[in-house]
Amino acid sequence: MRVLAAMSGGVDSAVAAARAVAAGHEVVGVHLALARTRDALRSGSRGCCSREDAADAARAADMLEIPYYVWDLSEEFARDVVDDFVAAYAAGETPNPCLRCNEKIKFAAVLDRALALGFDAVCTGHYARLDADAPDGPELRRSADDDKDQSYVLAVLRADQLRHAMFPIGDTPKPVIRDEAAALGLRVAGKPDSHDICFIPTGDTQGFLSERLGERPGEIVDSTGEVLGTHSGVHGFTVGQRKGLGIDRPAADGRPRYVLGIEPVSGTVRVGSDAALDVSTIEARTPVWSSGTAPDGPFSAVAQVRAHGGIAPCEVVPVDDGLRVELSEPLRGVAPGQAVAFYRPDAGGDVVLGSATITATA
């Protein structure tokens, strides 16, 4: 097969490309230039699209003796990921930009261009397993390395996208990947993993949002409606948040308060006890099914609402405008804007069924 290997400059994508080469595929490496300003240097594990990352990707491609190109997708990334991220926070939601990047950039913009150029698949360094030829449609599974599993952020992919995807390292623990990179002579073998939000290298999400949204004053109220304080914008809060609320007195019972809800129109942030964070029902929109076929009627599944953790058995009920998810046990910190991913309940809940975007909880 002709394979386009997306090479970020990290160890995972480099080894994924190396395995595609070893499997006998005709591989071409491509580095995605996503940041509009790429002059800044990388700081440890923060940031992306730096000069170091591009250079590391180029060196890895040279070691593997494969052609290498840089594709500038900064305009698409700014529109579909960064602007979407800002708009979601302005609407009182909690988005996942990694999930949106996989959906809109790596397996939409990149895959579309790759197929147009005659490639058969796009190869990435995601930690997930994939059987694109399963009898009932593509079967996406959790990674063999539970700590690195990225199936949740890939659960937004459609069946037609999964049929042209390759995740060569999903069956291998991360330490083994580093050893393999070292054995191949790849200089990225010991490079730190990236974390946090790639386009906010400072880690100051609130500052990033404030620069773009400005001040939007509102009130912080408790469950009785009492005003406890004010804030400069709902974009500074997310459901489940405990620190940085700016409340100058403790709750009556002396326990910490948490953000329970955000009302962007009125600018109200509701706070209360941690017990009030329990969620038993999730409403969600725009479901995507990994096999390409929507389930016929209600079905049992395992729901996951965060990249790592937030897992519970559930019953999923199709409704006119999306899905209703009835959890068998409550989850906490579930916010509109997040994705809920569904896994098949048998075989340890490894197989992804699909996902949807959370709109409300109860």
UniProtKB/TrEMBL annotation:
Domain tRNA-specific 2-thiouridylase MnmA-like central: 207-272
Keyword tRNA processing: yes
GO cellular component, one term: cytoplasm
Entry's localization field: Cytoplasm
Residues annotated as domain tRNA-specific 2-thiouridylase MnmA-like C-terminal: 281-358
InterPro entries hit by this protein: MnmA-like, MnmA-like_C, MnmA-like_central, MnmA-like_central_sf, Rossmann-like_a/b/a_fold
GO MF annotation terms: ATP binding; tRNA binding; tRNA-uridine 2-sulfurtransferase activity
UniProt-annotated stretches for the region Interaction with tRNA: 148-150
Reactions the enzyme catalyzes: S-sulfanyl-L-cysteinyl-[protein] + uridine(34) in tRNA + AH2 + ATP = 2-thiouridine(34) in tRNA + L-cysteinyl-[protein] + A + AMP + diphosphate + H(+)
E.C. designation(s): 2.8.1.13
GO BP of this protein: tRNA wobble position uridine thiolation
Chief site of localization: cytoplasm
Residue positions binding ATP: 6-13, 32, 125
Disulphide bridges, residue numbers: 101-198
Family: Belongs to the MnmA/TRMU family.
Protein name: tRNA-specific 2-thiouridylase MnmA
Gene behind the chain: mnmA
